[in-house]
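Sample pair:
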Amino acid sequence: MSTTPSTADRLRTLFQPVLRGGTPIRLRAWDGSETGPADAPALVIHDRRALRRLLWKPNQLGLARAWVAGEIDVDGDLYELLLRLATVVWNEDGGGDRPGALRLLREAASLGVLGPQPPPPPEEVRMPGRAHTRSRDRRAISHHYDVSNDFYRLILGPSMVYSCAYWRDDESTLDVAQRDKLDLICRKLGLRKGQRLLDVGCGWGSLAIHAAREYGVEVVGVTISREQADLARKRAAEAGLADRVEIRLQDYREVTDGPYDAIASVGMAEHVGPAVYAAYAAILFRLLRPGGRLLNHQIAARTDTTAVDADDPSFINRYVFPDGQLVPLGTTATLIEDAGFEIRDVEALRPHYALTLREWSRNLEAHWDEAVELAGLGRARVWRLYMAACALAFETDRIGVNQILAVRPHEDGRDPLPMTRAWMMP
């Protein structure tokens, strides 16, 4: 005797382009019906509108729009669900064997989801004009950083450091690991009292304050986020370092007061883009004195196949980092060397970023209601998905993060660094 398929069973047909046929997750429909393994995390569809999004975009962007809008959710472990959806989360085309178009249309019609493509949630951004002009870069940075300093403090903790921490052992805390990362950078740069440090993309001033307080250097920090600049100045003044820390609302292309003894670029170069990276590296080379050191801390695509460009229609580029671009480590190293630098050390920190993102995610979950109040429900949902997905990308070696230490050579060939790495150690 035939039985009428449940709403959840019919949903599985519609989700086939996304689920790749045998993906082991549960589906729960708005009427409470379920299908799939009982012990698997459940993708919960609250609203038929989510299905219309997926009919139009059967890939990560369709899923992301439904997630940000609150039309789908997860019951169970978000990380586990994302791992099981990895093929669509990390591939744009949706791929897989799709059921016949007529069958899809019949199921969609029976569920009442046919219709025009719904508009994306208001948190989605499309950047007008040519990528990486100064005006477009300001808009892209403002979209991500000018949200709420208090929102970032909830997630990042008191350190207000928005790049991967440096975990010496399993007993470390996020704040200690971030302090250790700042100190690692200062040691690699060989900072000494009286030197000048340029902090490109200085964020909320944490590295600038640490370098000035612990190493006695004078620091110029530049950012194009107004909220970051305002808070960084306030934090430097509260630390009694306003005479040694200058925070500028300034594009790196506008810095002309070199030479500096050292330059740090931490979590900033991902926003530059490979098309203008050669010019970026040339500017830093020109601003650094001969014998000076550059510390470039940058997320990298693991291979050319995982590279991300500014026109990528992915969740990350539409909701998190507009115009953010990732290239392999080798591409970045070549561009830095082409500018005239000599690379002297490279340290991979991929596992460190996975741990850091897990801690940020815990902070968000622990302060969820306050985060929603500060940034709005849609933005909070963006961050929940973004940090979990990125943690998994680092854990599964899809992306990495590296510190490149480079020097501007002396014209007479003198070696500006000691012969061994002992000076890097604490």
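DSSP finds 17 helices and eleven strands in the chain.
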